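Researcher: Next entry: Ammonium transporter (Novosphingobium anseongense).
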Amino acid sequence: MIRKMICGAGALGTSLFAATAAWAQDAAATAAAAVATAAPTPEATEAATTLIKAPTAEQMVGMVNKGDTAWMLVCAALVLMMSVPALALFYGGLVRTKNMLSVLMQVLTIVSVAALVWVCWGYSMAFTSGSEFVGGFSKAFLVGVDATTYAATFSNNVYLPELVFVVFQMTFACITPALIVGAFAERVKFTPLIIFVVLWLTCIYFPMAHMVWYWAGPDFLVDAPTDYGMLWGWGALDFAGGTVVHINAGIAGLVGCIMIGKRTGYGKEATPPHSLTMTMIGASLLWIGWFGFNAGSNLEANAVTAVAFINTFVATAAAAVSWSIVEKLHHGKPSLLGAATGAVAGLVAITPAAGFGAPGTSIVLGLIVSPICYLFVSTIKNKLKYDDTLDVFGVHCIGGIVGAIGTGIMAAPSLGGQGVFDYTVFPAGFDADSYDMGKQVFVQIKAVLFTLVFSGVGSAILFFIVDKIFGLRPAEEAEREGLDLSEHGERAYNY
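Model: Predicted structure:
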């Protein structure tokens, strides 16, 4: 994604991306041995390190790596798998039998509609120049985007075919609104929901993506120093979607579940998950797909990709274990539902920090996020009496907040983090000593608060409008019958 990250050009040296000091020392030793062995001539060295500022489209052709392209297409498929079938199965298993099919239908349709909206106007609103709040419509319906246009990465003189970038970002636009429906599952009408999703993507998601992830690129920012989104300009770090995806969707879910109201019989009738087997399958597929989500957000296949990959792995594992321990201490027994929920909380928390932190700090983040999310899911929700059906707020919003703020700490080179590159110079510069942890944490908190207010207020307005015009809540009789039959006229199971 076009976002402020730390992926520099290969010519700047891959040792800059080492995840810990020990790794950096090993990389330096290896590099020194390679230099001594190869002993390149001064002419060869100069040719290898010559970078082109503001390259033309013709020059970009030679700056595309087939390995990067193949990796990004695989990642796009992995992220799509996170929505269908992973999220659909994860959510579907958690609802009652009479609502299983409705959840599957909601997720599948949201993904389909979001993909079309993205191509029609979403990509242009998110990733073209405009204001610091939102892009324009110069690439609406992908006008001017074809096999001969290219998208920047985070390295000088490294590009992707633009259509690869379009399809990768499309999958993020598909899953984010699908996350929201878990907050008011079992009590929302289908057609008004889809209308809300189109409005929410247009008014909330696309502007957020622009504000956090849009910038001119490492080869052009020097000549266009104000061509970026607002939060990017603040210096907010979001590797793969802590603010844009999880906090954004989580707070929208909370607003939605409050405005739509509690399920009929909530607190009086038992509402157990109908199939934890389905939930386990969904959670497992989410974990696998999340490697495309996080490691793919590096936009290249290099050392930082590996950093994001391993951090995603260990943070998730730590969070699953941590949740199980908390349940054991609190209830005396660890549950499969708890372990799966903890894994998702870990995936959420590591998302903004995946390419910035080190494995050690990622494990700590995973261990910390589960008890915090558990508190919201098991205690705070009951005390405040809101019916967040599948704990979208408690896991995605709260986990995203923990991860987003934690990113400011984890990125510190003093803790083995990656630091940040300075893209205001060409070629991009790097100075580990310039990283200010306190300042960065402040910026991260500022970004979190902005996202909560922007998405919370904006979502409330959209829910209100759609409810007044179309009505979001089904009749009590339809809700008791189940949305499978009342909304879709079919059942998930016929045995």
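Model: Note for the record: Confidence is low (pLDDT under 50) at residues 1-48.
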